[in-house]
Every structure is written in structure tokens, then in C-alpha cells.
Amino acid sequence: MTVIWWARRDLRLSDNPALSAAAADGPVLPLLVVDPALLRDGPRSAWYASNALALDEQLDGGLALRTGSPAREVLDVARAVGATAVHVSRETTPAGRRRDDSVRDLLADNGIDWIETGSPYAVTPGRIAKADGTPYRVFSAFQRAWREHRWPAPARLPEQVRWASPPEQDPAARTALQKLVRDCATPLPPAGEQAALERWKRFRDDDLHRYAQERDRPDLDASSRLSPYLKVGAVHPRTLLAGLDSSEGAAKFVSEVCWRDFYADVLHHHPQTLRTDLTDALAGLEYSEPGDEFAAWQRGETGYPLVDAGMRQLLAEGWMHNRVRMVVASFLSKDLHVWWPHGAAHFLDLLIDGDPASNAHGWQWVAGTGTDAAPYFRVFNPTAQAEKFDPNGDYVRRYVPELRHLEGAAALSPWKNAEGYAHGYPTRVVDHAEEREVTLARYRSARGK
What we know:
Elements: E1 3-6, H1 17-23, E2 28-34, H2 43-58, E3 64-67, H3 70-81, E4 85-88, H4 94-109, E5 113-116, H5 139-149, H6 171-183, H7 193-207, H8 211-214, H9 227-232, H10 237-241, H11 248-269, H12 292-299, H13 305-317, H14 322-335, H15 340-350, H16 356-367, H17 382-389, H18 394-399, H19 432-446
């Protein structure tokens, strides 16, 4: 009997536990539902659409595409092909779980099995706990348990998968996906599983050896650039972990994969933390409402070159270097005193790798309200960060054309140069030294000190 593989955050064929389980169960109909409620113009949706279309091409047009409510569409397709089961990768975000609960209940009412196999993570959230059964909230302890727990080898797909022919296609679904890609002003990376695997091979062969030393340098761009592919499931983290050696670069890369699993685990246990603080230590902290300075931060016009370069990279590419993400987050939280969810929401609007768990808890780490939070008195100095991680100003000049006339490190402090503002670069919206003192005073007050 026919079964359905419903693709969501696993837009690939290899190392796909849900698809492998479906293939062992009967002829497989691959299905993707375009939920209009989740379609928004912009790079994030366009990136997903691009990878969905790449999967359809990989299947020679055999991906059943539907648009509408997932519960209704999955049931309708299952009825149309007489499916006995729907196979999925386990969803772990709050919205994803609510959606899946609704679909599962509807299928059960109609005698159709719901089968979850695998997840988008090396270790599925909820699998690792402390000795007393409570979840981890400190990364170092989680990482030790995560490494001891290990993860399965990459899932293998049968050499011959019996693909079921899709029922009558929904042209509106394909049109919606194509329109998202066509209307996206942001240049997107090559999409699809093959592009992801090629990117991984280039990084592993050419850059992994320098990853530990150079990953924090945006000017050198030693990042793997795999996070967008992980976001849509064009590659599974186990594929990346398989066969790595014990080099320093590999160890650091594994640690970064673990951070992704850790934040997913935290969100699994604390779903409210997408928009609220994990800890209440700063519950009484005074914040400033987003205003003109927040808008300047969004545009990359704060007058602080590294902050502006990062925000302009986000606007231009739908991506930002990880070190710079911390700097711009600290600037919004501790120089402009804006509550972190405002910045996190802006990131999710634009980042093609915008993972809800990693995004929310990365912001909370900087703001001092999450797991392993940065001490409240740690306030990133945007100029010092630029001098350390972009010492020659190459990253700044790449994204801030108003400063390209300044050579070397001069681009990092235009206020020190007589020609610093000659090409229209904005002056600083705030004085960092003054705002640091404001932040420390507010944090001490909130902590009752």
C-alpha cells in the first residue's frame, strides 16, 4: 500500500530517516505542502522555496505539491492515493508541534498512521537529560552528555525506491514557490542537496583545517556557510559529523553542531523562550522602546563600522558572520537598550538560516537572560571587536562603501580621521562608553545590587 513522505525541514533524499522508513513501508509518494500562512516575501521564504523546487527537480517532477492548510491537504492527498501512513521527520519547534498534533489527530480519525522517524538534529531534542531527569541548561555539561550519547550513522536509502505517482498537481503551489524565488531581491546560494554536499566537501577539504583559528574573523570568512542548508534540511548534521578526524578544526566544528542541538533541546523543554527570557534574573530590567535608533540599526547606519557592516551584510545576503551577529546583538541590547526579541524578530525576517531555537537563544546569550548567558557586565565594544576580528578593515570596506576611501584600520574609527565622513558615512547614534555605563546601572538595579 502507498505511504506518504511529507517533506518539511528535510528537503533531501540521502541520510533521511523518515524517507528511509517510508521506503521500507511501501511505494512512496513525496509530498510538500505550501502553507500560505508561512509565505512572506523575503530571503527566508525564498530560500525555502528554492530548495523545495530543487527537491522536485531531483525527483524528476515527482514531488506532490499542494497549497493550503497542512491538515486538510495532507488528508486530501492521503485519501486520493489510498495512503495507509504518513511518514515525517519529528518537528521540535512549538509551532511545528502544534501543526503536527493537528494533522496527526485528523489522520488518526481517518484510520491513517502517523509515523515520526528522526529529526533535523544529530540527537533529537529531549533525548539527553541529567541524572535526575531534568534538562541541561549549561552547554559544557550538555556537550559532554551529547558526545557520550552519540548519534546514529547516516540513514541509508534503498537502492531502488518505489516512487508512487502524484495525484493531480496543484499548479498554485508551484507558482507560489517560483514567485517567491523570482521576487527575492537577495542573491541566494545554489539550492538543493547536491549544492549542500558540494559546499560541505569544499569546506572540509579546503577550510576545516583553519576553522578553529579563523572562524571568528569575518574578513577571512572561514565559516562553513552550511547553516542555510541545515535550516531547510538539504543536508543532515549526521552527514557532516560522519568520518571527521580528531583535528582541532574538526573538534571546533563538532562543537558548533552541538550548540545547534543544545539550543533545540532548550527550546523543546522551554517553548515559551522563543519570545521571553529563559531566566528571570533580569525580570525588572528597564528597556527602551524601539525608535529611530532601532531603525538606524536595522539599516546599518549606527555610525559604528562593524555593526553597520554586519547589518548591511544581512540586508544584502540574508546571512551574517557569526561573530558579527554577537556584536550587533550586543549593540542593540546594551548600547540601544532594546529588548532582545525585537532584534531576534528582525533577524528571523531576513536570515536564510534563521533557526528559531538558535536565533532566540543566541540573542539571549548576549542579552544575559538565557543559558550560559554572557555576564551582565560584559558589553561588547564594537570598535574593539572590529580591531580584533577585522584588523585591516577589509570586512567593513566590503559592506560599507562610504568607508572604502580609508585604508587599513582607519576604516574602523572614521571619527579619528579628517576624511572619515567625506563620503556620507553617518555619525554615531550613541556614545558607546556612555551607554555602557547606562547598561551597567540598569543591570545592577534589576539584580538588586
